[in-house]
């Protein structure tokens, strides 16, 4: 915390946030961490989109794609559902399952990336054979990369 406070001494609001944060409250996240699920994506006339609502681990490679998908679904809901609260609830219902599935897949990938030295060497030896025989990208990532949103389909409230 001392180093962070020194580096952000002239930054507002960073300086104030760090001043009010104890050493035991500081959480750090690395490249393979997954932030906890946000329980509610909307309140009143405010709604979360993209990483604010769902931030999968960078190992998913889907952060920007999920954000764009969410923006399109939110636009569809606002177009077709006159009540904003209902539109937001429907948007969340349409998106939550997919983003949580992507996050779960990223968590699985993360656990696989934390192999020991022996497993790392064995994987390096077997991976070329595996990719030529049974690890076809279209089978491994098909559902992730073939996801489509039908813009013209009307949205009904959740």
Distance from first to last alpha carbon: 44 Å
Please identify, by name, the CATH architecture of the domain at 36-115: 3-Layer(bba) Sandwich
What is the CATH class of the domain at 36-115?
Alpha Beta
Poorly predicted sequence stretches spanning 5 or more consecutive residues: none
- Regarding quaternary structure, what we see is single chain
Helix content: 40-55%
What string, H for helix and E for strand, traces the elements in order? Answer: HHEEHHHHH
CATH names the topology of the domain at 36-115 as: FAD/NAD(P)-binding domain
Q: What would CATH call the homologous superfamily of the domain at 36-115?
A: FAD/NAD(P)-binding domain
**Strand neighbour order, sheet with most strands:** 1-2
Structural class: mainly alpha
Query: Number of DSSP helices?
Result: 7
Mean of all residue-level pLDDT scores: 82
Radius of gyration: 20 Å
Q: Would you report the number of β strands?
A: 2
Question: What is the secondary structure topology, with strand pairs?
Answer:
Elements: H1 2-7, H2 14-19, E1 42-43, E2 46-47, H3 63-80, H4 84-113, H5 117-133, H6 137-140, H7 142-145
Antiparallel strand pairs: 1-2
